[in-house]
From TrEMBL:
It comes from the Bacteria. This is XRE family transcriptional regulator. It comes from Nostoc paludosum FACHB-159.
Amino acid sequence: MAESSETCRELIMLELDIVASVNWNATYGERLREMRGKVPMQRLADEVSEKYGYRVTKQYIQMLERPFGEKASKTVSFILLRYICAVLGNDVQSLFGSPKIIEQNK
């Protein structure tokens, strides 16, 4: 008997470098807002642009934190999320509440 997506989750492990985008929702937006704390959105946008050469605006970060309305993005670049988390001193897995698995190359 098939389980509904509300009672069952299917997980797989992927290398982070092959993920292009993620489905975005208000829960992730709230986590990002908590992670940012008192760091101004403009400063965060500027640091992502300076450190990683990925242009992002204060308005886009605001939309990520409050993804409501018709114009809100339904998907977000995973690399941008990694850069934002790095600037904030976090790993991207903390944004998603996922375990971190590191495999060493032999």
